[in-house]
Amino acid sequence: MVLIAAAVCSKTGKAIISRQFVELTKSRIEGLVAAFPKLMTAGKQHTFVETDSVRYVYQPLDTLYMLLITTKTSNILEDLETLRLFSRVIPEYCRNMDEADILDNSFNLIFAFDEIVALGYRESVNLAQIRTFVEMDSHEEKVYNAVRETQMREAKNKMREKAKELQRAKLEAGKKKSPSGGGGGGGMGSYGGQGGYTASTPSSESTPAEPPRPAYSPPVKTSNKAMKLGGKTRDVDSFVDQLVQEGEKVATTVAPVKTGQTGLSKPSSAPQIQTEAVHVSLEEKILLTAGRDGGLQTMEVLGLLTLRVQEEKVGRVRLELQNTENKAVQLQTHPNIDKDLFRTKSIIGLKNPAKPFPLNTGVGVLKWRLQTTDESAIPISINCWPSDNGQGGCDVNIEFELENLILELSDVTIAIPLPHGVGTPNISECEGEYTIDTRRQQLLWQHTIIDQNNKSGAMEFSVGGNPDDFFPVTVSFTSSKSYSGIKVLECSEVDGGNPVKYSSNTQFFAEKYEIV
Questions:
Q1: 409: how many CB neighbours lie within 10 A of its CB?
Q2: How far apart are the first and last CA of the chain?
Q3: Distance of alpha carbon 347 from alpha carbon 328, whole angstroms
Q4: pLDDT (tens digit per residue) in 305-340
Q5: pLDDT the model gives residue 110
Q6: Whole-number Å distance between alpha carbons of 330 and 398
Q7: Rounded to an integer, what distance in angstroms lies between the CA atom of residue 396 and that of residue 426?
């Protein structure tokens, strides 16, 4: 079947919307649609009419027609099947089925038409898949906006907390200087050690001071023997923050944050790799919510393949990919990418081979999405089992198991919330390492790597609280292997197929991974 155009027109031959799948001028398509009503025979029921050059396949929609214009050599049975799918798509977006309603939803209809037909040939899709594909961009936007709003709220809260902390520190320093005049420096350092706040971007806005509170005067210490672990770092951070507040420009470097008893630092970002003239970046992120009693509530994996060309002489290249074997993964290429070439040979190349890729610009050439509630798709499962010990506290058993043995997860941190005001948990068993984040009231269970040789682990501890206090459990990790299995095999020139030296990096990470 070669489909020339799909249109919704009135009974007088007026084209309301039309999507052309081959090169056609506006006057040509308007002429073809206007000629359609004149070819219909009164009193006879047909599903198609023909001229010397084209065939019209149509279906009435109240006062309108759903019209397909095809070549005369196309398969009429396939044409009719495609027509039925087009006719089912229109009521999905238009309830009234009139001209005004069609125009109001024209963009959604055009997008849906593009999912049914590509380059004149029918795609193997059903109505549910079309609905999912059309809504994909809006869903990603909602996720992005939600994450951005959360980050902004957290940043504002941290800014207010730090401003209050500095205000209290200044009040304490002023009170200690007034009677003695000599102990101010030690008091300032002692108070600064309580914050545990890393240096952040200074804000130009000032926060109003709080009303005076009852004075709190900690005992003046003459030595640092009883100082908490990590206090020195916090003192430095507090001093730097004060310089910033006073208008000084301070170049800050983020040092590893030490928390709790073991002094382990948070995983730092991966070092930048040396890139070639052609660089390919593959990024995947997972958003997952699972129930504490089992069952996967939501799971979504979003991926993007980005190509960056830095030299004009290697601008006309193609990428050979290892495609995913997961049939549930929905793939979508950039509009300028040859869709047929990718579908048949898993090769990323431009529709116009004579054109090069843009220079010094990261171009997203392929994106994909997986959305499922199948428990077998979970990359790593977490089982947290708190039970009442009859003494006003809980015995908590937590374990993990790597379900996808192909993955290698690095810098894995499993964060378990702790109740406020119950003291330090008693760790009786721990495979791996742990720290206690007293600021966020979390127990951080950390593993450098989890793979098929280290695929499971368990931890047991006791602490005061109720079973509901230990949820949600959150997980963070990174991986140099993609979840979908997509990867770059080779980069070659368009002319001649000679191999081109390229660099690539792959990152799969957890943006939201929680057990609720």
A1: 27
A2: 50
A3: 20
A4: 999 999 989 999 999 999 998 989 999 999 999 999
A5: 87
A6: 34
A7: 10
CA atoms of 447 and 436, how far apart (whole Å): 15
β-pairing, 409-417 vs 442-450, is antiparallel
**Are 48 and 78 contacting, i.e. CB atoms less than 8 angstroms apart?**
no
For residue 320, give the amino acid letter.
E
Give the pLDDT confidence of 157-186 residue by residue, as tens digits: 899 889 888 888 888 888 777 654 444 444
- CA-nearest of 448, 429, 447, 424 to 260 is 424
Q: Which of 257, 280, 296, 320 is nearest to 374 (CA)?
A: 296
Q: Which two tokens stand for residue 304?
A: 């993007």
Nearest-angstrom CA–CA distance, 98 and 106:
12
Q: What is the pLDDT of residue 192?
A: 39
Say if pTM beats, i.e. exceeds, 0.70: no
CA dihedral 157, 159, 162, 167 (to 10 degrees): -110
How far apart, in whole angstroms, are the C-alpha atoms of residue 218 and residue 197? 20
Q: Is 42 exposed, middle or buried (0-12, 13-18, 19+ CB in 10 A)?
A: exposed
What are the helix (H) ranges across 247-335? none
CA–CA separation, 272 vs 41, rounded Å?
Answer: 70
**Strands 393-402 and 456-464, sheet pairing:** antiparallel
Q: How confident is the model at residue 204 (pLDDT cuts 50, 70, 90)?
A: very low
Distance CA 436, CA 293 (A): 25
Strand 278-290 with 502-515, pairing? parallel
pLDDT at 188: 40
Amino acid 346: pLDDT: 93
